[in-house]
UniProtKB/TrEMBL annotation:
Record-given protein name: Protein phosphatase methylesterase 1
Organism (species): Recurvomyces mirabilis
Source organism superkingdom: Eukaryota
Top-level EC class: hydrolase
Residue ranges with Low complexity bias: 42-51
Stated family: Belongs to the AB hydrolase superfamily.
Gene that this polypeptide is encoded by: PPE1
Length: 387
């Protein structure tokens, strides 16, 4: 249990607070074997056992609130993965692409302290523009997914980039296995902040093979992040540790311009909190506990971003965030740079329509199935045409 949750102003132990759901149907259970070791680099091994809890909304459910996850995604999956070293329950939100062979599938990873619903409005706007697209939004350990020690039951405190990247790969592979896909659809990786570091690492590792069309990183730059480490620590020390209500938490995010879009804040902020027995709320993620791994999240990321396989796009809230390596890479045409000055750090929440349009255009530019190659000279000669 995190120190933040132990040391609250009320002195109360927090209760797990699942996202409010409108009387779902009984959870369907299906047995799954763990993905092969060469397909997944997580701590789970071949002798691990895995199961899936799937929650699918039904037409007989009560009408969900406008901020409920069912307004943005078709399904949510809970993957249970047990091994000798860890007991994990991974959580993802999912909407399948219309055609698995054509895709596209956008795989999204949130930033530190955030949640999978930070891509809710982005998903809605994306599917308005690209109705055939699918979206898989992952939740990191201690952010919606839970990874514990099988003997003690305590959460495993390991937020290293390698571990969190392995978690992401496990969630992707288990989603693929649950759906019976022999291969992933054409895929675009999208990561915000820390999530950008994770999706970049997936691309560098060639973890998803040829399925990756490209990857897009939102407001994450190595040099800027390293310079801002002290500011992050100060920010965590001054932000509220407890809220009287969800509305108070939402309003704090909007008032401080942490999230500038009130609609998105109302959707994502409740998933970032845990309810106490008193009815008050504390942060689900003890962000300060991740500090030992901050340098590892950031160091070397610019070069990784430039060298990973696939097309690349960087979306920033300001040009001041670019570091030297990225400036050189951008001048050399190694990636597409887009600056969104009207947004804050949570670009995909502040301006979901613009973010969705940028990703639709990114996919359109790099969709291999849409590429039309010129005819071969031999074919033209065979047709009696002059070349």
């Amino acid at each position: 249990m995190s120190d933040l949750l132990r040391n609250t102003d009320d002195g109360e132990a927090p209760q797990p607070s699942p996202r409010p759901k409108p009387n779902p149907r009984p959870v369907t259970m299906s047995s799954l074997s763990i993905v092969e070791a060469d397909e997944c680099s997580s701590d789970s091994s071949a002798d691990s056992s895995a199961s899936l809890n799937t929650i699918r909304p039904s037409s007989s459910e009560e009408v969900a609130s406008a901020s409920h996850w069912t307004k943005f995604f078709d399904q949510e999956f809970y993957f249970d993965v047990d091994s000798d070293t860890q007991k994990a329950r991974y959580h993802v939100y999912f909407t399948p692409p219309t055609d698995v062979k054509k895709g596209p599938l956008f795989i999204c990873h949130h930033g530190a302290g955030s949640c999978g619903l930070s891509f809710a409005l982005f998903t809605r706007e994306l599917r308005k523009r690209l109705p055939d697209a699918g979206v898989l939004s992952l939740e990191a350990r201690n952010h919606g997914s839970i990874v514990t020690n099988p003997q003690s039951g305590e959460e495993i405190v390991d937020f290293s980039l390698a571990t969190m990247t392995a978690d992401a790969e496990t969630m992707i592979n288990m989603t693929k296995q649950e759906l019976g896909w022999t291969q992933l659809p054409p895929t675009v990786l999208l990561g915000h902040s820390l999530g950008g570091s994770i999706v970049t690492q997936l691309a560098v590792n060639y973890a998803l093979g040829n399925a990756i069309i490209g990857y897009c990183v939102i407001d994450f730059v190595e040099g800027y992040a390293i310079e801002a480490l002290q500011q992050i620590a100060s920010y965590l020390a001054t932000r509220p540790k407890i809220f009287s209500s969800l509305d108070e938490a939402v309003q704090w995010h909007v008032r401080t311009r942490t999230i500038r879009n009130p609609e998105s804040a109302a959707i994502s902020v409740p998933s970032m909190l845990t309810r106490l027995p008193s009815g008050k709320y504390v942060w689900k993620t003890d962000y300060s506990a991740t500090q030992p791994w901050w340098d590892g999240w950031f160091r070397g990321q610019s070069q990784k971003f430039l060298t990973g396989r696939g097309a690349k796009e960087l979306i920033l809230a300001g040009t001041d965030r670019l570091d030297k390596d990225l400036m050189i890479g951008q001048m050399q045409g190694k990636f597409q740079l887009v600056v969104v000055p009207e947004a804050g750090h949570f670009v995909q929440e502040d301006v979901p329509e613009k973010t969705a349009q940028l990703l639709v255009e990114f996919f359109g530019r790099n969709d291999r199935s849409a590429m039309v190659l010129p005819p071969k000279v031999s074919d033209l000669l065979a047709q009696g045409k002059k070349v």
